[in-house]
Amino acid sequence: MALALGSTQAAVSNALRRLVDGGALRVERYHVRLKLQRLKVYQLTDLGEALVRHIRSTSER
User: Fold this and answer.
1) DSSP string covering 32-48, please?
2) Which residues are CB-contacts of 52 (< 8 A; sequence separation ≥ 6)?
3) Per the structure, how many domains does the chain have?
4) Element (H or E) spanning 29, and its range?
5) What is the pLDDT of the chain when averaged over all its residues?
6) Does the global pTM surpass 0.90?
7) C-beta separation of 19 from 41 below 8 A
8) What separation in angstroms does the CA of 8 have from each of 3, 22, 37, 58?
9) Residues 6+ apart with CB under 8 A from 33
């Protein structure tokens, strides 16, 4: 994820942790196909979806 964003793993990890702590994301560990270990999977909460809608609406102006 960090490589795709052009950032460091530490920066992405810190941002994700802040979003989880703020209630915008939830994180769980799941078995992911073709991976040997369980991976963290992040999902938007209702609050996170509302924040995305707000950001999109203000950036389209």
Assistant:
1) -TT-SSEEEEEEE-HHH
2) 44
3) 1
4) strand 25-31
5) 93
6) no
7) no
8) 7, 21, 22, 28
9) none
